[in-house]
Write a structure and sequence with these properties.
By secondary structure, the chain is mainly α. It contains 9 helices and no strands. Helix 4 (48-73) crosses helix 6 and helix 5 (77-90) packs parallel to helix 8. It starts with a helix and ends in a 16-residue tail after the last helix.
Length: 200
């Protein structure tokens, strides 16, 4: 019953936050939609912000699953790394993610880099970078921890830029190629002494 009540409240809240936004969502309307009382909401989530955090966590988890699938389907580890990071930025074009995660999220919960999920994201990027360095694909003179934080920051800023733009699709055409170029700067380049004649 506890899990069912929580699921009903999160589903109703997600629908309302996505359609109306955080500020315009009424707790009375939301609980009525779920067939529950405000007391149930306060018992399980504390307040409206607590419920919003639960919705953010659910969406974030779904995004992570999708991105893992993108990476797993790629031809190489490097391609998977690039496509997974670009995939996150591209998700900023989706209306629900735009409104809940990238518009209302920072306004209600503060800087996304301070969210609990941020550390997990940075750790995953770092692990990928370290493996790519071991594979000889990514430069070894780059600190994997620092690189992971900068990549995470760049992808978040790109997603926020797209989500808050008057024309998100147009901005994505600027942001995504630039972000991809930044990632490609991580690649190990052959030393000039290793270059073949046709490369010179």
């Amino acid at each position: 019953m506890i899990a069912e009540t929580r699921a009903k409240l999160i589903a109703a809240a997600r629908k309302s936050f996505g359609k109306l936004g955080f500020a315009e969502t009424s707790m009375d309307d939301l609980t009525a939609e779920a067939g529950l009382t405000r007391g149930a909401l306060y018992h399980h989530f504390g307040d409206k912000k607590g419920l919003f955090e639960a919705v953010i966590l659910q969406i974030d988890g779904e995004m992570a699953e999708r991105l893992t699938g993108i990476s797993a389907a790629a031809a190489t580890r490097w391609n998977g790394f690039v496509e997974e990071n670009i995939g996150y930025v591209e998700m900023a074009l989706e209306p629900e993610i735009q409104r809940i995660l990238l518009r209302d999220g920072p306004a209600v919960l503060g800087d996304p880099s301070s969210w609990p999920s941020a550390n997990g994201c940075i750790a995953a990027i770092r692990a990928n970078l370290e493996q790519l360095q071991l594979d000889g694909v990514v430069r070894n003179d780059i600190d994997a921890g620092g690189g992971a934080r900068l990549i995470s920051g760049a992808s978040t800023v790109a997603a926020l830029w797209i989500a808050n733009a008057e024309d998100p699709a147009s901005i994505s055409h600027q942001a995504i190629p630039a972000f991809k170029a930044l990632l490609e700067g991580l690649l190990e380049r052959p030393r000039s002494s290793d270059a073949q004649p046709e490369d010179l």
